[in-house]
Design brief:
Chain B: Pfam families: AAA_5. Chain B: This is MoxR family ATPase. Chain B: One of its GO terms (molecular function) is ATP binding. Chain B: InterPro entries: AAA+_ATPase, ATPase_dyneun-rel_AAA, CbbQ/NirQ/NorQ/GpvN, P-loop_NTPase. The structure holds two protein chains of two kinds. Chain A is α/β, with parallel strands linked by helices. Chain A is built from 18 helices and nine strands. Chain A folds into three domains: 128 residues, no CATH class; 38 residues, no CATH class; 186 residues, 3-Layer(aba) Sandwich (Rossmann fold), CATH 3.40.50. In chain A, the strands form two sheets. A six-stranded mixed β-sheet of chain A has the order 6-5-4-7-8-9, with helices on both faces. About 12% of the residues of chain A have low confidence. Helix content of chain B is 50%, strand content 13%. In chain B, the strands form three sheets. Chain B has a five-stranded parallel β-sheet with strand order 2-5-8-1-9. In chain B, a hairpin with a 3-residue loop joins strand 6 and strand 7. The longest helix of chain B has 16 residues. The relative contact order of chain B is 0.13. The mean pLDDT of chain B is 87. Classes of the chains: A alpha/beta, B alpha/beta. Chains A and B meet through helix 2, helix 3, strand 1, helix 10 and helix 14 of A and helix 2, helix 5, helix 6, helix 9 and strand 9 of B.
């Protein structure tokens, strides 16, 4: 078998430069591309040859894309950058206000806007072969379409009183959610473990010239379960969800406090994954970022639809290793109760434990009259109030006790 | 066998193994072979990610080494392990015969004789047919520590055994990693690989795949089966049927001597394509007939 042939860089330095610019533009559009990938891409193009446009596309695709979500952005960027003349024309038409009326029947496809913004960003620095005049106009308009895109409101986090934040922070930072650890397959050294650890025994013996002095033992390692929080941020819940997001931030950043991973989702009219934002160290920055991501703050609620999206797109990803699910909503939903009950059942079946926190329970004499609540209640493991710091403290006890069902039994009797 | 020199050769090689492969996939496979980089394949279950490795190994006449990932997979079951019972016996034997030359014994205890090679180490070893194909299947099932461990193995193609030193592959193995995306694999690992998302095939390609994998089926039924499955993928299902399910289903129909799809036949064999009770119950009653009619209507013009 001969060695892999020496790879030559392309003789035309122009191509390498173009690929570099293209990579830069992709980076601008949010794809994580380091310099190493660019070198790879140049080598890959050299290896595959430069014969057909389609091959060229897939070569760059293999080097620059590393997540399915990136494929759309990549293909839009590719078309824009390696000039598909018709497409460029369309992009211009779509982005320019004068011609927009003609183009209204065809809305922007996913990724187009990101691609356009990334390519046109910093055109003055002439990184990209566009003339600056067009660039400025389009950029200006892109921001306009961005704000007009979503009619739902974005929340202003400044409304939260400093006193409230301080109090929540102080108490939540002290709060832990003690959970039962789970046994996993890996072994760890333990003096009185139930299993002999042959590997370590022999290693010790070899050090003693083959003399076995004691039997090393091992036991199963313990691991912590994951926590998935699905939080309603619709109008009726907004006051409450802010505190919950603070709480969520405290839990997901408490290293070594139990949970292996904490995934956060918000929903109103649509589902948003805010896990990444919660990793920010500063709680205010994290909550603000999460609020900017979720476009449906204080809008309406479509619990059934959002749970459906969660079950289809995320459930197998974040609950693969048996996660405890915290569902935080008032359960006021006017959609089809049968579909809602079905999604709840699916959620409960895939979760280790499904806990529903409902702030409505704070009222004395609360009865499950709303059809949404009636549909959801049979499919939760535990039903708790969640309206105050005190009730969040109770939650810590619920999580540590798998037999606790909260108010579920009492309310089920009233159904 | 030599590695292919052009993209067309890759395509021919895979087709020769009954793996119908699109241009996009051929390009990345070619690159992976040419550049000696691991290939990271993601996609829904049952679109043929694992099959690529098998077809590649068979086509190149290389050994296929498969490392099936699971949660808790660690270095001792992925790379190597010392054969402790055998070592123990060797120590006792040396003691009993009185030939306890300590240095010699120790050198012997940690030699290849007592080394149990696991897939990663096997893949680093030279092979007479050329470097083997290493399939690391379902990457997303391992945990992060193992993923981090793979970084060294995949970028430098070497593993370190403290007692023996570093073992580097003379020729890098052809590495294929697959993931169902039940969890996100870390960027550091992806960065070392070429990436490709394996999508569901289009109608024409799926017919070709079925022709290659279930050749005994009549052309008409084949088109109907593929049309129905493709229509099913457009439905809002919990788990969409993959290519593997299409092939399974076709074989089921063959075993039942079905010559024509009908709602009754579909209802009887639905378990071969849909694996969730929710999805199956959705297709009860007239729903299957509707999709079948729609699929047939789509087929008509061609």
């Amino acid at each position: 078998m001969p060695e892999t042939p020496q790879i030559q860089l392309p003789e035309t330095p122009q191509l390498a430069q173009n690929i570099t610019h293209f990579a830069r533009a992709l980076r601008q559009a949010g794809l994580p591309i380091g310099p190493g990938r660019v070198v790879d891409a140049v080598q890959a193009v050299a290896a595959a040859g430069f014969t057909s446009r389609l091959d060229f596309y897939w070569v760059l695709h293999a080097c620059f894309v590393s997540k399915p979500e990136h494929r759309v952005v990549f293909s839009q960027m590719f078309r824009l950058y390696w000039r598909d003349p018709q497409f460029l024309e369309h992009m211009m038409a779509m982005l320019m206000p004068a011609v927009r009326g003609v183009q209204d029947e065809r809305p922007a496809r996913p990724g187009e806007k990101r691609a356009a913004e990334a390519l046109l960003h910093g055109t003055q620095a002439d990184q990209v072969p566009f003339d600056g005049e067009l660039g400025t106009e389009i950029e200006f308009d892109a921001s306009l379409t961005m704000s007009a895109e979503e009619k739902l409101r974005t929340l202003d986090f400044e409304q939260m009183s400093t006193d409230e934040v301080a109090q929540a922070k102080r108490i939540l930072s002290q709060m832990t959610l003690p959970v039962q650890p789970l046994q996993c397959r890996r072994l760890m050294a333990a003096v009185r473990g139930p299993r002999p650890d042959w590997r370590r025994t022999l290693r010790d013996a070899a050090r003693q010239g083959g003399e076995i002095q004691s039997m090393a033992r091992a036991k199963r390692r313990l691991r912590w379960p994951n926590l998935v929080v699905i939080c309603d941020i619709s109008g009726s819940m907004s006051q409450y969800s802010r505190i919950i997001l603070h709480f969520l931030h405290a839990v997901s950043n408490a290293q070594g406090a139990g949970w292996a991973r904490v995934h956060g989702f918000t929903f109103g009219t649509r589902l948003t994954n805010i896990t990444r934002h919660l990793a920010q160290r500063d709680v205010d920055a994290a909550v603000a970022a999460a609020g900017a991501e979720a476009q449906d703050w204080e809008g309406g609620t479509r619990i059934g639809q959002c749970l459906h999206d969660f079950n289809r797109d995320w459930s197998r990803r974040v609950m693969g290793q048996g996660a405890v699910v915290l569902l935080i909503t008032d359960g006021l939903d006017r959609d089809d109760p049968v579909a809602l009950a079905h999604e709840m059942q699916r959620l409960q079946l895939s979760a280790r434990r499904l806990i529903w926190l409902n702030p409505l329970l704070r009222w004395q004499g609360f009865a499950p009259k709303a059809q949404g609540i009636r549909a959801m209640l049979p499919h939760v493991d535990s039903f708790r109030a969640g309206h105050s710091i005190a009730s969040l403290k109770d939650l810590a006890e619920v999580i540590s006790n798998p037999d606790d069902h909260g108010e579920k039994a009492r309310l089920m009797a009233q159904l | 066998m030599q590695k292919p020199d052009t993209i067309e050769q890759v395509q021919a090689l895979l087709t020769g193994q009954g793996y119908v492969c699109g241009r996009a996939l051929a390009v990345v496979v070619f690159l992976a072979l040419k550049l000696g980089r691991p290939l990271f394949l993601e996609g829904e279950a049952g679109v043929g990610k694992t099959e690529i490795a098998k077809a590649l190994a068979a086509g190149l006449n290389r050994r296929l080494i498969r490392l099936q990932c699971y949660e808790g997979l660690d270095a001792s079951s992925a790379v190597y392990e010392w054969n402790f019972p055998a070592q123990m016996i060797a120590i006792r034997t040396a003691e009993a015969t009185g030939a306890a030359d300590r240095g010699a014994l120790q050198a012997e205890l940690f030699s290849d004789e007592f080394l149990i090679e696991r897939p990663l180490l096997q893949a680093m070893r030279p092979d007479q047919h050329g470097a083997p194909v290493l399939l690391i299947d379902e990457m997303d099932r391992t945990d992060e520590p193992f993923e981090a461990f793979l970084l060294e193995a995949l970028s430098d193609f070497q593993v370190t055994i403290p007692e023996l030193g570093t073992i580097q592959a003379a020729e890098p193995p052809i590495v294929i990693l697959t993931s169902n995306r039940t969890r996100e694999v870390h960027d550091a690992l992806k960065r070392r690989c070429l990436y490709h998302w394996v999508d569901y095939p289009d109608f024409q390609r799926e017919v070709e795949i079925l022709q290659a994998r279930a050749p005994d089926i009549s052309a008409r039924l084949r088109r109907e089966v593929v049309g129905f499955v493709q229509a099913l993928r457009r439905e809002d299902l919990f788990k969409k049927p993959g290519v593997a399910e299409t092939i399974d289903w076709a074989n089921c129909l063959l075993a039942l001597d079905v010559i024509d799809l009908s709602p009754e036949v579909i209802a009887d064999t639905l378990g071969a394509i849909l694996k969730y009770q929710d999805d199956i119950s959705r297709l009860q009653g007239s729903e299957a007939k509707r999709i079948l009619d729609q699929a047939r209507a789509d087929l008509e013009p061609t």
